[in-house]
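S.,

As promised, the UAH run. Input:
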Amino acid sequence: MKPFCRDTWVEVDLDAIRANVETFRRHLPESTGIIAVVKADGYGHGAVRVGEEALASGADSLAVAMLDEAIVLREAGVQAPILVLGFTPARSVEIASRLKVQLTAYNSEWITQANALLEQANLESIGLHIKVDTGMGRLGVRTQEELMQVVTAVEQSSKLDWSGIFTHFACADEPDTTHVRRQHETFQTLLQSLRDAGKKLPMIHCCNTAAAIAFPEWGYDSIRLGIGLYGLYPSPYMKERKDVSLVPALSLKTRIAHVKTATQPMTISYGATYCAQPGEQVATLPIGYADGFSRLLSNSGEVLYNGSRSPIIGKVCMDQIMVRLEQGTGQPGDEIVLYGKSGDEEISLDEVAARIGTINYEVPCMLNYRIPRVYFRNQEEVDVFHPLTMKQVAQKTVNN
Ligand code: UAH
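Predicted complex:
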């Protein structure tokens, strides 16, 4: 049975994930580990499959933004260490304990409350990573006093193990390194204050993809590899630097649903913002903004048909778009590449991001549960997961 009915799908190249982990492995000092960041369902690529591939390729552990994402990984059978990078309500520590998931902390009241809940329920202790805010202004302790308070609270608790300390950079992907260097210095000063107070430091980590590329010497015990895992650069500037060569893992494809040739002026889509002229061949494709294909691509984006570009005409609808096939030979069922390569042409996620005025991170994250993820290794399909039906519909080979 065909694993999904509508012919619109994401392809994820697991060999690209592997190659990207190996690239960072070579780029970093040997003593620096890799935490593969698979939050937001692996930046839209599928957290379980990508996480498994990253671990099999040399990553040591996984990180997600919220505990619910860690639950999904555990339920799928992932046994590697998982760290939640974001806020977890204290009431959920019992789940973290049962699933052996590490949490992030930055507040001594939270630590006391979490410890009490674990003691009451007589549960196993959990690992905590202390988050330090050195200039992101998001989560974390900011001063030596706050840090010492939190460390003391963790040390005094019977059910919380101090497993890590980390910070997150705001501007590591920019040519001006003033801000990132200042953040790193603040981090170093705070770490030193702990050493001076006689504390034995746990795992230290601060680099995201951009910092890992630009400052591999700041790797400490581990980096947190997000966007680079997926073969994307954190910014156009980071791409231009050419420090590492990454392989994009994701393509988005569909098949033509309907083809018509205008015999007289023919308006296209809501608002009739485009008028096809006689002779123009118009193809309707089954994807729309409800799939996470941005409406900002209306009358602006392009797709690839047989290796050449075709413009999106008219407004992107909820479930469909129309394109003008310049070759004029399209048939229902013909494959169209929305993101990715066709022949010598490529529509990169960077290109799409630039067109809609965002960053490449957002483009795959927008692709949602309506689109099945098809996984490839050695150019062969090895797995399909359809989030809409929550079904793992096919599994051929998973391990090399
Ligand atoms: C705390 C934290 C994040 O929120 C994200 C990442 C990964 O960033 P990149 O995708 O830029 O590598 C790491 N850490």
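Residues 14-230 form a domain with the TIM Barrel fold (CATH 3.20.20.10). Residues 37, 85, 168, 208-210, 224-228, 234 surround UAH (CB under 6 Å).

- D.
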